[in-house]
Amino acid sequence: MSKHKIPEYNTSWSEEEQGRWGMVIDQDLCTGCQACVVACAMENNISFVGEEDVVYGRAMHWIRVERFWEGEYPEVKATDFQPVMCQQCGSAPCEPVCPVFASVHSQSEELNLQVYNRCVGTRYCANNCPYQVRVFNWRDWERPEPLNNQLNPTVTVRQRGVMEKCTFCVQRIHEAEDSAQSEGRELVDGEVQPACVQACPADAIVFGRIDDPESEVSKLTKGGRGVQLLEDLGTQPRVTYLKGG
Amino acid sequence: MAVSAKPLSHPQVEMHHDPRQYLMLDPRPRGEMNEMVMDSMLSISWKFWVAAGILGIIVLVCLFGAWGYMIFEGLGVAGTNRPAYWGIFLVNTVFWIGISHAGTFVSALLRVFKAEFRRPFTRAAELMTTFGLVQAGLSIFMHMGRVWLSYWMFPYPNQRGLWPNFHSPLMWDFLAINTYLLASTMYLFLPLIPDVAMARDRSTGWRKNLYRILSLGFRGTEGEWTHLRHAMNIFAFAILPVMFSVHTIVSWDFAVATRPGWSSTIFGPYFVIGALHSGIAAVAMVLIVIRAIMKNMKYFIRPEHFDALGKLMLIVSMAWAYFFFNDYMVQWYGGDKWTDQLLHFHEAGLLGWMWLGMLILNIAIPWLTLWNKKIRSNPWILFIVGLLINVGMWFERYIIIPISLTVNRMPFTWREYVPGIEVLLTIGTFAFFILLYMMATKLIPIVPVWEVQEGQMAHSLRRFGRETVISVSELE
Lengths: 245, 476
Known about the structure:
Strand content of chain A: 15-25%
Strand order of the largest sheet of chain B: 1-2
Largest sheet of chain B: 2 strands, antiparallel
Low-confidence stretches of chain A: none
CATH architecture of chain B: Up-down Bundle
Number of strands of chain A: 12
Number of helices of chain A: 6
CATH topology of chain B: Formate dehydrogenase/DMSO reductase fold
Oligomer: heterodimer
Helix content of chain A: 10-25%
Distance between the termini of chain B: 11 Å
Mean pLDDT of chain B: 89
Number of domains of chain B: 1
Strand order of the largest sheet of chain A: 10-1-12-11
Structural class of chain B: mainly alpha
Helix content of chain B: 55-70%
Largest sheet of chain A: 4 strands, mixed
CATH class of chain B: Mainly Alpha
Number of domains of chain A: 1
Structural class of chain A: alpha+beta
Strand content of chain B: under 5%
């Protein structure tokens, strides 16, 4: 009888471990225009759920632009816009709770990925995500006739009952790596651009290798203005927010 | 085991009452008692079939119909959203597992400690365990997004080399509930064997065939009794840790998560006590209904039993109040910003009435009523108190799951949870439970008649000088 290989589960993350891909979002530059939200929806075949379901909290966006205000009406002061997507935690709370290994840490990209085909829809990962960035397919939402033609062929379309979330556009990472490999060269910093980065008119989002100290993303991360969301939970997020420049 | 059988409480004090008020001191001939149990099982009136028909229609429409619709349409027809990813389905799961707890608690713990008043109603309690677990399991499956793939939670060898994740609390839960279902079903079956054998000897037709199979050829020889006693003893001891572990593991689904209001180390015992609180109240309710509806049951189930169960309910209510206070105080004292927000939301949020109602129903009402022997011996008052406790415990689970989920660390996503099709499915599970229970009372003897007879043989009245005392002998 052949020996079954049981997947190993890495329970210990070292503090120094930086991860591979990272992102920086400059809140001083963000204008809250929502172009990233639209670009992400186009790139990743995100369903349009309709007004009623959006109001009820079932929007499928993988990235959202949070806005808050300070003070009581009418003396309210808007705060900076805060785009939030999956933080690609190094020590992700969503991973250990999935009973079927649908929420996994990929070894080659060091990203937190959702295996749609494996998901049975217990929704535990979403409950345990402190950033609330996971979205669930509550229905099979319709894609009326011309809209089905804009589906991105490199991204899976998800069924009802499946959890999904931001992947840092892993399909674009692979595409860039493949073309670099076929041309026999290394990846250049800034060559990989997730849809949100590409669409941002203010260049508020920067993406790249955070294990490369020379990359723009590493320099910005360590530039002194960076904060991470809910740092105290020890989730080791790979997204850094810049503020107060 | 060093525990000796306990005679009924306060033998001297109660002696000027009629000792025949106690079932153990009111023996009847064995043949007559067997006939009474057979009669209550076999007499099926037209009312039974009408009730069964109505319940069956409710089950078909509200449970299987609505569930089928939900599977076809997706979970959007239910009320879950972001951030309340878990809703009434898991509230019901925890509730039904709680109900299933008391069956084992009442039966196994009282058997282990040889509490004599347990004898006539152990089976009624054990049946609740099994049928409650069926509803809990159904509720978990309703909750899943792709229920048709739920077999992926089984650790079965497959071509793709995939294995379930044993780090997940849901996996622990899955294994614990399965273990409990198997163990409690066997524990229900073992004491049933002599009664089924009794029924086999007194029935004809398809029933005789059914009981012949179920009784496994039991004839009542000394060797068979010895083996049966050994097996029951092992199971009674072994099932108690299983019972405590099941609800502890259910509580870990919440306690190990990184959510404010959930990650509380007291959740294990708090959930177990909560389960007993609703479960014992449910046992009392079921007994009251059986006594009122079924024939000859007034002989077997008496005010003394309601008195004993009422005391148990009062004690468990006090224990629950202690754990509730403990859980609340530690979370409040922790001073975490988000937990503070959540506690405030519990008390003064949109559903603050539910939090207050939980405290009134779970603490105030049992404490104000059950202290009095007259009140707790009255079946219908006890029924109402039991019902209110169960409503209160359902509120508690509702507060822990969807209400706690609406407040999290990302205030931008805070949203209210409004139940949708869950309401129908909840009605369906309750109807299904009642239907299964009704059918079971007509298929198997609901009173473990051999246990009652054994107890009556062991009890006797003896005179010491002028004093008459109750004595009970060890039969094993």
